[in-house]
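To the team - zinc ion complex, inputs and output below.
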Amino acid sequence: MSELPDVERLLRAAALRVTRPRVAVMTAVREHPHADTASIIGVVRADIGDVSHQAVYDVLRSLTAAGLLRCIQPSGSVARYESRVGDNHHHVVCRSCGDIADVDCAIGTPPCLTASGAHGYSIDEAEVIYWGTCSSCSTEHISSTRSASIHIS
Ligand SMILES: [Zn+2]
Ligand SMILES: [Zn+2]
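Output:
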Protein backbone atom coordinates (compact mmCIF):
# COMPACT_ATOMS: atom_id res chain seq x y z
CA MET A 1 0.00 0.00 0.00
CA SER A 2 1.53 3.26 -1.15
CA GLU A 3 0.03 5.36 1.68
CA LEU A 4 1.81 3.35 4.35
CA PRO A 5 5.13 5.17 4.58
CA ASP A 6 3.26 8.45 4.77
CA VAL A 7 1.05 7.22 7.62
CA GLU A 8 4.10 5.92 9.46
CA ARG A 9 5.81 9.26 9.04
CA LEU A 10 2.78 11.05 10.51
CA LEU A 11 2.69 8.69 13.49
CA ARG A 12 6.40 9.18 14.16
CA ALA A 13 6.08 12.95 13.81
CA ALA A 14 3.38 12.82 16.50
CA ALA A 15 5.70 10.74 18.71
CA LEU A 16 3.42 7.71 18.44
CA ARG A 17 4.79 4.23 18.07
CA VAL A 18 3.97 2.73 14.67
CA THR A 19 1.65 -0.22 15.31
CA ARG A 20 -0.48 -2.20 12.89
CA PRO A 21 -3.79 -1.07 14.40
CA ARG A 22 -2.71 2.59 14.31
CA VAL A 23 -1.59 2.35 10.69
CA ALA A 24 -4.78 0.48 9.75
CA VAL A 25 -7.04 3.02 11.50
CA MET A 26 -5.22 6.01 9.96
CA THR A 27 -5.44 4.43 6.52
CA ALA A 28 -9.13 3.57 6.97
CA VAL A 29 -10.02 7.11 8.01
CA ARG A 30 -8.03 8.62 5.13
CA GLU A 31 -9.82 6.40 2.65
CA HIS A 32 -13.24 6.95 4.22
CA PRO A 33 -13.42 10.52 5.48
CA HIS A 34 -16.22 11.20 8.00
CA ALA A 35 -16.66 7.49 8.72
CA ASP A 36 -18.17 6.47 12.03
CA THR A 37 -16.53 4.08 14.47
CA ALA A 38 -18.52 1.05 13.30
CA SER A 39 -17.48 1.50 9.66
CA ILE A 40 -13.87 2.13 10.67
CA ILE A 41 -13.88 -1.13 12.64
CA GLY A 42 -15.22 -2.90 9.54
CA VAL A 43 -12.51 -1.50 7.29
CA VAL A 44 -9.74 -2.19 9.82
CA ARG A 45 -10.89 -5.79 10.27
CA ALA A 46 -10.97 -6.33 6.52
CA ASP A 47 -7.42 -4.97 6.42
CA ILE A 48 -5.60 -6.59 9.33
CA GLY A 49 -8.02 -9.20 10.64
CA ASP A 50 -9.55 -9.48 14.05
CA VAL A 51 -9.16 -6.35 16.15
CA SER A 52 -11.34 -5.65 19.18
CA HIS A 53 -13.78 -2.76 19.24
CA GLN A 54 -11.95 -1.48 22.29
CA ALA A 55 -8.61 -1.48 20.45
CA VAL A 56 -10.07 0.59 17.61
CA TYR A 57 -11.75 2.99 20.08
CA ASP A 58 -8.43 3.39 21.91
CA VAL A 59 -6.54 4.05 18.69
CA LEU A 60 -9.15 6.57 17.52
CA ARG A 61 -8.89 8.34 20.86
CA SER A 62 -5.11 8.48 20.87
CA LEU A 63 -4.88 9.59 17.23
CA THR A 64 -7.46 12.31 17.89
CA ALA A 65 -5.63 13.43 21.03
CA ALA A 66 -2.39 13.56 19.02
CA GLY A 67 -4.07 15.78 16.45
CA LEU A 68 -3.76 13.26 13.61
CA LEU A 69 -7.50 12.79 13.40
CA ARG A 70 -10.37 15.14 13.96
CA CYS A 71 -13.59 13.99 15.52
CA ILE A 72 -16.84 15.66 14.54
CA GLN A 73 -20.25 14.91 15.95
CA PRO A 74 -23.20 16.65 14.31
CA SER A 75 -26.27 16.57 16.56
CA GLY A 76 -28.22 13.35 16.10
CA SER A 77 -25.18 11.62 14.62
CA VAL A 78 -22.55 9.33 16.08
CA ALA A 79 -18.95 10.54 16.18
CA ARG A 80 -17.27 10.70 12.77
CA TYR A 81 -13.57 10.85 12.10
CA GLU A 82 -11.47 12.46 9.41
CA SER A 83 -7.78 12.87 8.69
CA ARG A 84 -8.13 16.39 7.34
CA VAL A 85 -6.81 18.27 10.35
CA GLY A 86 -5.07 21.55 10.96
CA ASP A 87 -7.50 23.68 9.03
CA ASN A 88 -10.74 25.15 10.27
CA HIS A 89 -12.99 23.59 7.64
CA HIS A 90 -16.68 23.12 8.26
CA HIS A 91 -19.21 20.48 7.30
CA VAL A 92 -22.48 20.19 5.49
CA VAL A 93 -24.74 17.38 6.69
CA CYS A 94 -27.66 15.84 4.81
CA ARG A 95 -30.76 15.73 7.01
CA SER A 96 -32.08 12.82 5.05
CA CYS A 97 -29.20 10.29 4.78
CA GLY A 98 -26.64 11.77 7.18
CA ASP A 99 -23.97 12.13 4.49
CA ILE A 100 -21.25 14.66 5.38
CA ALA A 101 -19.10 16.77 3.09
CA ASP A 102 -16.31 19.26 3.75
CA VAL A 103 -16.93 22.96 3.38
CA ASP A 104 -13.93 25.24 3.27
CA CYS A 105 -13.77 28.30 5.48
CA ALA A 106 -15.96 31.11 4.22
CA ILE A 107 -13.14 33.50 5.10
CA GLY A 108 -9.64 32.17 4.49
CA THR A 109 -8.26 31.99 8.02
CA PRO A 110 -9.56 30.60 11.33
CA PRO A 111 -11.85 31.25 13.06
CA CYS A 112 -13.45 32.02 9.70
CA LEU A 113 -16.50 33.66 11.22
CA THR A 114 -16.34 36.81 13.23
CA ALA A 115 -18.23 36.38 16.47
CA SER A 116 -20.71 39.14 17.14
CA GLY A 117 -19.45 39.27 20.71
CA ALA A 118 -16.21 37.67 21.89
CA HIS A 119 -16.77 38.12 25.68
CA GLY A 120 -13.06 38.88 25.99
CA TYR A 121 -12.13 35.46 24.58
CA SER A 122 -9.39 35.08 22.06
CA ILE A 123 -11.27 32.99 19.50
CA ASP A 124 -9.24 30.64 17.29
CA GLU A 125 -11.82 28.29 15.87
CA ALA A 126 -15.41 28.23 14.66
CA GLU A 127 -17.18 24.96 14.04
CA VAL A 128 -20.05 25.44 11.66
CA ILE A 129 -22.43 22.74 10.52
CA TYR A 130 -24.59 23.49 7.53
CA TRP A 131 -27.70 21.32 7.28
CA GLY A 132 -29.53 20.50 4.09
CA THR A 133 -30.33 17.78 1.57
CA CYS A 134 -27.54 16.16 -0.43
CA SER A 135 -27.76 15.93 -4.21
CA SER A 136 -28.53 12.21 -4.31
CA CYS A 137 -31.31 12.60 -1.74
CA SER A 138 -32.87 15.46 -3.68
CA THR A 139 -32.54 13.47 -6.94
CA GLU A 140 -34.07 10.45 -5.25
CA HIS A 141 -36.99 12.56 -4.18
CA ILE A 142 -37.56 13.81 -7.72
CA SER A 143 -37.24 10.34 -9.29
CA SER A 144 -39.54 8.72 -6.75
CA THR A 145 -42.13 11.37 -7.50
CA ARG A 146 -41.68 10.66 -11.20
CA SER A 147 -41.67 6.89 -10.91
CA ALA A 148 -45.15 7.13 -9.47
CA SER A 149 -46.46 8.21 -12.85
CA ILE A 150 -43.88 6.76 -15.30
CA HIS A 151 -43.18 3.54 -13.37
CA ILE A 152 -39.40 3.13 -13.78
CA SER A 153 -37.90 -0.28 -12.93
ZN1 LIG B 1 -28.61 12.60 1.57
ZN1 LIG C 1 -14.23 17.21 7.06
